[in-house]
Design brief:
alpha+beta; three-stranded antiparallel beta sheet; two-stranded antiparallel ribbon; 5 strands; elongated
Length: 142
């Protein structure tokens, strides 16, 4: 839980409001005090982070599932297609470039292999002028 300490120190240094932490296996949804539309961070395994946003709240209806153990109930999950590399069209994109004369379009998505092959020589030196950012494809979370 060393990362929790670091996050708390970081938020205190930036005048964030104080927040609580809890162990997931010891916490039920009923224990949480949440605001609709407000982002919350769920972190586990030290580096896996999930933003959780409560989007809707309503009273239970007689046609609803009444088994409390099945809640929170996911009613819809939006499917997002993965975006492949603009060069090889095989692998999922890991980089996005702008102002890149070597790219077929601007901005342009690249898999890791094509990005390194196009933008760095065999000694690892940058070739050409471009801006590059790590890209996380939303489709990987399906």
């Amino acid at each position: 839980m060393h990362y929790v300490r670091a996050i708390k120190e970081w938020t205190r240094s930036r005048d964030f409001p104080d927040f609580k932490t809890a162990r997931m296996e010891e916490t039920s949804f009923n224990d949480l005090r949440m605001k609709v539309g407000f982002p919350y961070l769920y972190t586990h395994q030290g580096d896996c982070e999930h933003v959780v946003v409560l989007t809707d709240v309503r009273l239970v209806h007689q046609d609803d599932c009444l088994d409390i153990k099945l809640y929170p109930l996911i009613t819809h999950k939006h499917r997002v297609m993965t975006r492949k590399c603009s060069v090889c069209h095989l692998y999922i994109s890991r980089w996005i470039t702008t102002s890149d004369a070597l790219a077929p379009m601007d901005p342009c998505l690249f898999c890791d292999q094509c990005f390194r092959m196009f933008h760095y020589d065999d000694k690892g030196n940058k070739v050409g002028d471009f801006l590059a950012y790590a890209y996380v494809d939303p489709g990987t979370f399906n």
